Amino acid sequence: MTPRLEEVTPRNFEAALGIEIRPDQRHAVEPVVHSLAEAFVHPAGVAWPRLIVDDDRPVGFLMAFLDIDWLGDGTVRRSGLWRLNIAAEAQGRGYGRFAVDSVAAEIRRRGGTRLYVTWHPGPTGPEGFYGALGFRTTGETSGGQTVGVLDLA
User: Fold this and answer.
1) Residue 8 and residue 14 in contact, taking contact as beta carbons nearer than 8 Å
2) pLDDT by residue (tens digit) across 16-51?
3) Fewest beta carbons within 10 Å, which of 46, 55, 108, 131?
4) What CA–CA distance (Å, rounded) separates 109 from 83?
5) CA distance 41 to 96
6) What distance in Å separates the CA atoms of residue 133 and residue 151, rounded to the nearest whole number?
7) What is the mean pLDDT of the chain?
8) Which residues have a Cβ under 8 Å from the Cβ of 69 and sit 6 or more positions away?
9) Is the distance from CB of 116 to CB of 141 less than 8 angstroms?
10) Nearest alpha-carbon partner for 2 in 59, 62, 55, 50
11) Residue 139 DSSP SS3
């Protein structure tokens, strides 16, 4: 496995849109097209969408949020993983861990010390995945989702 991230461009846009998660996960994460639309409507630099490619084969999509106004009042700024879509046939091969590690590296590069993520609670949600990577719950919710944080220091 030698995955890499690619910026989403006109050249790979259709490949990004083709990333399909398992049907039982569709309630927990928006499709790639929704994420790209959100990236478009937010101020420049807030959304960091990337295609995950392995050996020139698209295997996933991630979108980070960078230095957002978390509470909407200017008092708390956070960065983290906004979306993670690993193609159904590519799951269980380490691409999710690669995605989280890549976002962590970008946040560190920008001087950040924490990586936040939210997830839908429940038996088919990704809580176990994030817990295994060291995320801890903060006790907060955001849009009905559990908020987790990973210390990067």
Assistant:
1) no
2) 999 999 999 998 899 999 999 999 998 888 999 999
3) 55
4) 20
5) 26
6) 11
7) 95
8) 76, 77
9) no
10) 55
11) strand
